[in-house]
Design a protein that fits this description.
With 308 residues, this protein is of the alpha+beta class. Helices cover 29% and strands 34% of the residues.
């Protein structure tokens, strides 16, 4: 039995608007399903937990944003239930990073006719993250955006990703870099004047920023991007390149890989995962190999038999 979880606040009401279209198509197709419209993350967690008690191998379809998906990861990780995504949030980086169509009916087609792939998760301080973990400049941007009025205005104009651009421009003038030590697979790397550190499981975060273009949620590795040892003006010139992924070749950008990562900084830094606040430094991150079943287009990697 398929369960649709509709976040009524996602994308300033986009979740509800999208559900009207999806519900009509499901009725036309005469496919059995159940649904719930939720006002809080706790309500979504309650409905999903109850549903999986009855239908442990069912499909949970989220009509919402990355934050809604993030809150359901502890319930879905390591189970035989599959996650389906119909993007209806502000950033929608899960859809970008996992090759899920952003058009609602195409996303539904993926859910109905795609395949159940086992994808990796990031385990960070005993919590799960799907797309990427960020600390430093980018996390400060996420903190500002989530507390802002302009996020709501951008959602009303249906340009949700623009909220992150606005937040980044503001933070460019207020953020202060710090020293950081990053241990990857037991090897310590020291960096001065660190602007941001991102640990990526998929290629996109922050509303379309391609922070680690080569990140693959099926390969058992985390991709780490560190921006350091540059001036504020240099960072401003760098920023436009992150949307294309061209920043990775710059001398003040270090790209590393590993399955176990520990981050400390000279002062406490807020950390965000999937656009949700998950704590502060120090941070301990590790790959959660094939921990989540996700419905993806049939051309994606297939690992259902390896779910752990």
């Amino acid at each position: 039995m398929m369960l649709f979880v509709i976040n009524q606040h996602a994308g300033n009401g986009k979740g509800l608007r999208t559900w009207q279209l999806i519900e009509s198509r499901m009725q036309q197709l005469e496919i059995e399903y159940t649904s719930c419209v939720t006002a809080t993350p706790e309500e979504a967690e309650m409905h999903v937990s109850a549903h999986l008690t009855k239908y442990p191998r069912s499909t949970i379809v989220v009509l919402g944003g990355d934050g809604t998906i993030h809150r359901l990861l502890p319930i879905l990780a390591g189970t035989q239930a599959a996650l389906g995504v119909i993007p209806a949030g502000s950033g929608n980086d899960t859809a970008r990073g996992f090759h899920i169509p952003t058009e609602p009916l195409q996303a539904l087609h993926t859910i109905l006719h795609g395949q159940r792939n086992a994808v990796d998760l990031i385990e960070i301080n005993d919590k799960w993250t799907l797309t990427a973990l960020a600390t430093g400049f980018d996390a400060e941007v996420a903190e500002a955006v989530n507390q802002s009025r302009y996020k709501r205005w951008c959602n009303q104009l249906r340009i949700g990703s623009a909220a992150y651009l606005i937040g980044a421009v503001i933070a460019m003038f207020t953020f202060k870099p710090a020293r950081a030590s990053i241990t990857i697979n037991g090897t310590i790397h020291h960096f001065d004047n660190v602007w941001l550190t991102a640990i990526a499981n998929s290629s996109s975060y922050g509303g379309g920023i391609r922070i680690s273009p080569q990140a693959d949620p099926h390969d058992g590795e985390l991709d780490i991007c560190i921006v350091h040892s540059c001036t504020r003006w240099t960072l401003m010139k760098l920023f436009p390149t992150v949307f294309s992924g061209k920043h990775v070749n710059l001398p003040y950008v270090s790209m590393l890989r590993g399955h176990d990562v520990h981050i400390t900084s000279s002062n406490d830094r807020v950390a965000y995962g999937d656009g949700e606040r998950i704590g502060t430094t120090p941070l301990q991150a590790a790959i959660g190999r094939h921990k989540l079943l996700m419905l993806q287009p049939s051309s994606s990697h297939h690992y259902e038999s390896k779910i752990v």
